[in-house]
Amino acid sequence: MPTHTFKLNGKQISVEAEDNVRLLWVLRDLLGVTGPKYGCALEVCKSCTSHINGKAFNPCSVQVKDIEPADEVTTIEGLPATVGKDLHPMQEAWLKYDVAQCGYCQPGQIMAAVAKVKQARAEGRDITDADLDELRNICRCGTYSRIREAVKAGAEDMGA
Amino acid sequence: MPNTSESPSGAGELAVAPAFAAIACAYARATGTMPTYFPINHGKLSFEPLPVQPSTPQSPTDGLDHTF
Amino acid sequence: MAEHRRSLDRPSDRPADRRGLLGRRKVLGYLIAAPTLAVGVSWLTNESDPRAADAAVPSVPQPADVFDLGDLQNLAAAPTSGLITVQLKSDGTAYFAVPRAEVGQGITTAFAMMVAEELDLPMNKVEIALADARPELLMNQLTGGSNSMRSMYVPVRTAAAIARQRLVETAATHWGVEAGQVTTRKGVLSGPSGRTATYGSLAELAATAKTITVSAELKSPSEFSVLGKPRNRVDAHDIVTGRKQFAMDLNVPGAKPTMVARPPTINGTLRSINNLAALRAMPGITDVVGITHGVAIRGETFGQCIDAIQKVDATWGPGTVDGESDATVLAKLRAAQLPMAAPALPLLTKTIDAEFVFAFASNSPLEPDCAIADVRPDSAEIWSCLKVPIVAQEDIAKQLGLPIDAVKVHVIQGGGSFGRHLFHDVAAEAAEISQKMGKPVKLSWSRTDNFRQGRTHPMSTSRVRVNYLAGNVLTYEQRHTSVETDFGHGLGEMITAFAADIPVGGNLSFAETIFALTQSSPYNFGVTTQLLNEIPLKFNTGSMRNIYSPNVVCAEELVVDQLAAKMGQDPVRFRRNFLKDQRLLAVLNKAAEVGEWGKAMPKGTAQGVGVHSEYRAAVATLVEIDCRPETVNRPVEGEGVTGPRVTKAVIVVDPGFCINPRGLEAQMFGGLQDAIALALTSSLHIKTASRWKAAGTTTSTPGSGTRRWTCRW
Predict the structure, then answer these.
(1) What residues contact residue C334 under an 8 Å CB cut-off, 6+ apart?
(2) What pLDDT, in 10s, does the model give residues C557-573?
(3) Distance separating alpha carbons of residues C394 and C131, to the nearest angstrom
(4) pLDDT digits 0-9 by tens, A101-151
(5) Where are the alpha helices (DSSP H) in C607-676?
(6) Is residue B21 part of a domain?
(7) How many Å apart are CA C246 and CA C371, to the nearest integer?
(8) Keyword Cell membrane: yes or no (chain A) (predicted)?
(9) Per the CB < 8 Å rule, is C302 touching A134?
(10) For chain A, what is the radius of gyration of the CA atoms?
C-alpha cells in the first residue's frame, strides 16, 4: 500500500493508504482526527472544511495521492496553533456569541470563516455581507444569524 | 416577553408553526395569491438529481479546484 | 373562556396560586445510601398531578386545551421520576445523568443551570451526562414533544436543593453550630468565625448509610442568580475545538467503518448479491454480507465502503410503495378527507373553503445516522443517538434473540434530530450487521440513504371551511389528512398505558390521539372542530419538529387572513378581535409594535403574521417577504433554487418561565429557519417507481435575507 506524507497540524506525518481514498477518511478513519465531520462526502454540506496551505477546502473531495509532501493540512484541531494561542480569535468569537447548537457543522463553519476573512484581507478589504453569502456551509439547526455576527467579530479580532 | 409563570414551557419546537404561517401569509399579501401547495418552490427543480443506483454516489475528486 | 385555556393558563400557574411566587416551595426527596452524597427525588409528592388538575377545567375546550401531549408525557414520567439522582463527588462536582438525549436543543446546559442554582455551585462544577438506556425508567426516557424542561424542572432542582441542605446540615454538625449559621456560595460552605469547607471535602461525611426521606425548600424565582439569566452552552468549548464526540467519532475497538448498498426503491429488499467474491476482494474491504434491506460492507475507511457500493451487483425485491408518486399520494389523501359537519346555517351565511397541500419533507439532521454495534453470541453493546433508548434496547434484544439486560445501549449526543432520533432503525441495522459479520461495526448511513430511505414527515392535506355572518365566525372546521405517521417509538406505548387518563374519547389511533392532544384553535370561531384522518401507505415516516402544528397552523392562519379580508379588517386587528387568550394577544401586540406592522412596503413585498400556542407557551411571528421578480429570479451560485426571500423576522415568545434566554433565542432562530424551509423550499419529491428524486434543501443566512441551498442529494 502506498505511503503518503504531508504536514498535518504542524507535524510531518506519514500514512499508508490506497491512492484514491479521500483525505477526509484518511484523517478520520486512519489518523483519528475527527474534527472534520462527514455530512455528505459530495462537497455540498461543507462539514469537513479544513485548510490546505491556509486555504479552505473539503477533504471529502480530494484523493490522498493529490496531497504533496510539502502541503500543510490544518484541521480545527490545529487552528489555534496557527496563531500560537489556545484558541483562535474566530473560536473565541464563536464562544462569545454562543453560536453552536448541536455543533456538528461548527468546526467546518469556523474553518470556512477564517479562510473567508483571510481572503478578504488578502484583497485589502474587510469582510462584507456579500462575502458571508459566499459561505456555503450548511447548519441544519439554523444558527446562521449568530454565525454571521461571530464571523464579523472574529474578523476584527484577527487583526490585519 | 417577561416571565408570566414559574413554570417553564416547551420551547424547542415552538417557533416553527407561527413562523411558517407568517411567511405563507406574507407571501399571499405580497403576491395577491394565497399559496396552497407547500413548499412554494416544490414544483421547481434547478438541478438534475443523482441517479438512484448506486445508492450512495461516489465522492468528487476536484476538491483542490475549489479552495478559497 | 379565554382565561380558562389550560394550554396557557394552567391552574397551578395562575397568579392566584401565590405559594410559589411569594415564598419558597417545600419539596420532598430521598438521601440515598451511597459512598458520597446522593439524592433522589419523587415528583409525585411535589408537582400537581395532571389528572387532579383536570377537575378545574370548565366549559368545552378542545382536548389539547385541558390535557396536552406534554401532560401525557408528564403522567407517564411521574411514577419513575424518583429514580432520578444527583450525586456529589468528593472532588466537589455534582453529577447528573440525564435520562434524555441532547441533540442541539440545549437541555444539558439547562439542567446544569438548575443544579448550579439550587446547589449554589459554579456551572463548571456541574457534570451532566446522558444516561444509558434504563429499562426501570419505563416511559420516562423519551426526548420529544418539547417536554424535557416541563417534566424535569422541579425534580432536578429538588435533588439539588436537598443536596445543598444536607451539606449545610453536615457542616453544622461537624462544626457544632446551628444550620442557620451556615451559608453556601460557589461550592463552599461558610460558618461562624470564618470557618469554610468545600462541598467536596464533606461529600463523604454527608453521605447516608440508609435511604431516608427528607424535605427541603426550593428557591423562589426572586432568589435566582443562574436560572433565567443568559448562559452559553456547556459544550461550546468542545464544539469549537472539534472535541465534541458524535457517534462516528467514537473509538470502539474493532468497530470498523461500515456502509450499506441499498435498493433503488423505498424499503426494497435484497434478493441476491451477484458479485460477492469480487466485492470482498476490493481494497480495504474486510467483510460483505447481505442484510434485509441491502448489502452491508465493512472496511478500513468509509471511503472504501463507498467505493465498494459503486461496484455492488445485486438483485432487488420490490419495496413497499413502488407505484406511488406525489400525484398518486395526493389523490389518495383527497379521497380520504373526512367530511365537514357544519350544522344548518341561516341563509345569509357566507363560506370560505380552502385546501392546502404539504409535500413530504425529510427530517434528517446534518449528522448522517450513525450507530456502533458490537454483538457477541451472548451480549450486545450499542452506541447511538437515541431519544427513546429503552424501546431501542427492547427491540434490538428481541431481534438478536438476547435477553434485554444482555443488551447495553449508550446514548450519544446527536448532530441534530428534528424527530429523526426518535427511531432506532440505524442502531437495529448496525446490530443486524454486527451479528451477521460476527464483528463490531461502525455503521453510517450516507446522505442519500438519509433522504431516500430515511424517515420523512408525511405528505398531508388540510381542508378548512369557515362559515361567517356579519362580523362573526359561526363555525371553523379543519380536516387534516395525512399519510400515516409512525409513532411506534414509545409515544404509542404511553398512550396505551394511560388510555384511561386521556380526555379524548373512543378508539382513536395513536396518531389521532396525538393530533387531539396537540392541536387547538386559538380563536373564538364558534363551533370548532379539527380532525385527523390517515391513509395507510408504508413510507418511512416520522414526526418532524412540532409534528402536526406547522401545517395545521399555516392552513388556519392563511384562512384567518382571508376572513379578515372578507370582513374588511386588517390581519392584526382581526386577530386581536378574535383571539381567546391574553398571552397570545400580548405577544401579537408586541410583535406588531416591534415589527412596525402596517408600515409602507414596496409593491411585491409584504408583511405577514402568525400566532401559536403550544407546550404552555405563546408565540407570535411577524415576517417580511420579498417576492419581486428581481429577487425571485436572482442568480445564485451552483445548483440552488431562488424564489421569494424572507428579509426580516420578529419573533415574540412568552415561554412562561424562561430558564435560559440565550438558549431560548437559539431555539427561536432554529425554528424560524425550519419554517422558511417548510414554506419555501424543503421537500422530498416522490417519482413513480418510488424514486426519491430531488431532496434535501436547507436554508441560510437571514439578517441580510435568506438564500436557499438546494442540494443535489
Answers:
(1) C461, C481
(2) 999 999 999 999 999 99
(3) 16
(4) 999 999 999 999 999 999 999 999 999 999 998 898 999 999 999 999 999
(5) 629-632, 661-676
(6) yes
(7) 10
(8) no
(9) no
(10) 15
C617 grid coordinates: 407557551
A145 contacts chain C (CB < 8 A): yes
Cβ separation of C13 and B57 shorter than 8 Å?
A: no
pLDDT digits (tens, 9 = 90+) for C591-627: 999 999 999 999 999 999 999 998 778 999 999 999 9
Q: Which domains does chain C have, with CATH numbers?
A: 2-237 (3.30.365.10), 247-320+364-452 (3.30.365.10), 324-359+459-580 (3.30.365), 581-713 (3.30.365.10)
- Report the amino acid identity of residue C234: V
Which chain B residues are within 8 Å of A61, Cβ to Cβ?
A: 59-63, 66
Residues 11-70 of A with CB under 8 A from C: 17-18, 20-22, 24-26, 28-30, 32, 34-42, 44-45, 47
- List, in order, residues 6 or more apart from A75 with CB less than 8 Å away: A8, A9, A27, A33, A35, A36, A50, A51, A107, A111, C242
Give chains near B: 3+ CB pairs under 8 A.
Answer: A, C
Q: What grid cell was written down for C352? A: 370560505
Query: Furthest-apart CA pair in chain A: how many Å?
Result: 46
List C-alpha distances in Å: C130 to B11, C139, C697: 20, 16, 31
**pLDDT for C286 beyond 50:** yes
- Between CA C543 and CA C546, with CA C544 as vertex, the angle to 5 degrees is 100
Q: What's the pLDDT tens digit per position in B31-49?
A: 999 999 999 999 887 777 8
CA distance C512 to C534: 8
Question: Cell triple for residue B28?
Answer: 399571499
- Provide the grid cell at C320: 413497499
Chain centroid to CA A5: 20
Nearest-Cα distance to chain C for A50, in Å, is 11
Q: Kindly state whether C50 is in contact with chain B, defined as any CB-CB distance less than 8 angstroms.
A: no
Give the closest residue to B26 by CA, choosing from C577, C647, C587, C547.
C647
Hey, what's the cell of A102?
A: 448541536
In chain B, residues with a C-beta closer than 8 Å to the C-beta of C623 are 19, 22-23, 26
For chain C, the average pLDDT equals: 83
What domains are defined for chain A? Answer: 3-76 (3.10.20.30), 81-158 (1.10.150.120)
CB-based contacts of C470, cutoff 8 Å, min separation 6: none
Task: Dump the DSSP string for chain B.
Answer: -----SSB---TTTTHHHHHHHHHHHHHHHHSS---EESTTTT---SPPPPSSSSSPPPPS-GGGG--
Residue C692, SS3 per DSSP: strand
